[in-house]
Amino acid sequence: MPETAFINGRFLPLADATVSVEDRGFQFGDGIYEVIRTYGGRPFKLESHLARLERSAQAIGLRQPYTRERWAQYILEGLRLAAFPEAKIYLQVTRGAAPRDHAYAQELEPTVVMTVRDLRPPNPTVQAAGVQAMTMEDIRWGRCDIKSVNLLANVLARQQATRAGVFEAILIREGRVTEGSVSNVMVVHNGILVTAPEGAHILSGVTRGIVLDLARQEGISVQERYCSRQELMEAAEVFLTGTTVEVLGVVRIDGQPIGSGAPGPVTRSLAKRFHEQTG
Ligand code: PLP
Hints:
This protein is of the alpha+beta class and 279 residues long. It is 30% helix and 29% strand. The protein is built from eight helices and 15 strands. The strands form two sheets. Strands 7, 8, 9, 10, 11, 12, 13, 14 and 15 form a nine-stranded mixed sheet that branches. A six-stranded antiparallel sheet has the order 2-1-6-5-3-4. The relative contact order is 0.14. The model has no long low-confidence stretch (mean pLDDT 97). The structure holds pyridoxal-5'-phosphate (PLP). Pyridoxal-5'-phosphate (PLP) binds at residues 35, 154, 179, 182-184, 203, 205-208, 241-243.
């Protein structure tokens, strides 16, 4: 079975997988998700992703359908069935299917979906050259720490960026850089690595955590604080972190070059250290 889906305990080909039109994930975006990728065929930082899934579930009062051990078994089984050299695993848990009503009954059975698809690794030429980004107002809700399937503001931001021919939308809330539409944002200023603090306005990225640890191990000072658009534009280096983007230099924002206009030494060194971790 190549592209594989899993619905409530059952594996099937992705093309045959369906859920009810009354699913609250479909009707209200009432659900949570995770994206995990493999390196060497093994899920990377599975524990961290499952821990975040638990935090998201708890934050919206959603019953966790499986223990971490059970999740891990299903994920490994999905990888075995799909048999891709590298895979992208998408997990989604919604509050379940019920006649449409904003309020929900506590006893609803969650809908659990997993997909396992072929992973195309980031293009090394793009990684080496860096990408462009544009700034945009962060119009998302006040709980961006919850990995909710309700991604409309992120969708609109990324679409606007794509239409403008750039890779990522860097979001700014009340003058403060929060994160990207699909990534965390890191800024290097006077040799100090600055990134938005964990809290309600950003997703606590698994890659963000790894990269901050690597930076500290390298003796780079880290400040978890917000920076302004001006600091962003005047930075020596800007880069993105995320499961799918890894560590990706941003070389131009809103049409203006950042630093030297190429991924800088801190970005390249952290990208290298990150790849050593992934094997
Ligand atoms: N911020 C947002 C809004 C994201 O969607 C993502 C990843 O999907 C990230 C940050 C990076 O998180 P992670 O490193 O856990 O993939």
